[in-house]
Design brief:
The complex is a heterodimer of chains A (113) and B (116).
Chain A (H helix, E strand, L loop, with lengths): L2 E3 L4 E5 L4 E3 L2 E3 L5 E7 L6 E5 L10 E2 L10 E3 L8 E8 L10 E3 L3 E6 L1
Parallel strand pairs in A: 2-11
Antiparallel strand pairs in A: 1-4, 3-8, 5-6, 5-9, 7-8, 9-10, 9-11
Chain B lengths: L3 E4 L2 E4 L5 E7 L5 E8 L3 E10 L2 E4 L6 E3 L9 E3 L8 E8 L2 E2 L2 E2 L3 E2 L3 E5 L1
Parallel strand pairs in B: 2-13
Antiparallel strand pairs in B: 1-3, 3-8, 4-5, 4-9, 5-6, 7-8, 9-12, 9-13, 10-11
The chains are: A mainly beta (113), B mainly beta (116).
């Protein structure tokens, strides 16, 4: 069964400190992993995906298949990073098909000034 | 912030009543989705549709029904058979799989349903 686990419901760090939001997954094949973010009074939106291997707003995430993890990291937290973060997984690509995402429980990140 | 609209923003229902949540998109996306969000449980997929006149059950479809008669619209009906319908409901859409990978899902603002 597909499952995504975010062990921390709440995470609080000081501005300028490093941030790591944990995500572990359970999937028998080769998953696609994503991080979605919801800022206050805004819609849920894609932050980054593992296949792109890019840095968005200073955040990076590396897929570790051995540890089945996809932790989100940022070396220096900023106050505007405060938001709800969801890790999500989808199964194999279905050509021209809809994507079934499985979400984790979410982590609320608060950056203290 | 257009693209996907959901109405109403808040909805109150008496027990035993069916209610329909609206979801409209003008992004020309083929795929549309309905999720339910409960505190501490993240988002769970209710139904999804890859194309007009086609839809499939997600992980928690019991007590819900959908239709996809138009590309732009994907309404969700919460029936009286749904045991615990009070939740936040999110609609999303995407272009589906293009270019060898899935494109991102775009989300609506959500509808909060409360059963009285």
């Amino acid at each position: 069964a597909q499952r995504v686990t975010q062990p921390e419901k709440l995470l609080s760090v000081f501005k300028g400190a490093p941030v790591e939001l944990k995500c572990n997954y359970s999937y028998s094949g080769s998953p696609e992993l994503f991080w979605y973010v919801q800022y206050s009074r805004q819609r849920l939106q894609l932050l980054l995906r593992h296949i792109s291997r890019e840095s968005i707003k200073g955040f990076t995430a590396d897929l570790n298949k051995g540890e089945t993890s996809f932790h989100l990291k940022k070396p220096f937290a900023q106050e505007e990073d405060s938001a709800m973060y969801y890790c999500a997984l989808s199964g194999p690509l279905i050509i021209q098909g809809a994507q079934k995402l499985v979400f984790g429980q979410g982590t609320r990140l608060t950056i203290n000034p | 912030d257009g693209g996907i609209t959901q109405s109403p923003k808040y909805l109150f229902r008496k027990e035993g009543q069916n209610v329909t949540l609206s979801c409209e998109q003008n992004l020309n996306h083929d795929a549309m989705y309905w999720y339910r969000q409960d505190p501490g449980q993240g988002l769970r997929l209710i139904y999804y549709s890859q194309i007009v006149n086609d839809f499939q059950k997600g992980d928690i479809a019991e007590g819900y029904s959908v239709s996809r008669e138009k590309k732009e619209s994907f309404p969700l009906t919460v029936t009286s058979a749904q045991k615990n319908p009070t939740a936040f409901y999110l609609c999303a859409s995407s272009t589906g799989a293009l270019g060898g990978y899935y494109n991102e899902q775009f989300f609506g603002p959500g509808t909060r349903l409360t059963v009285l």
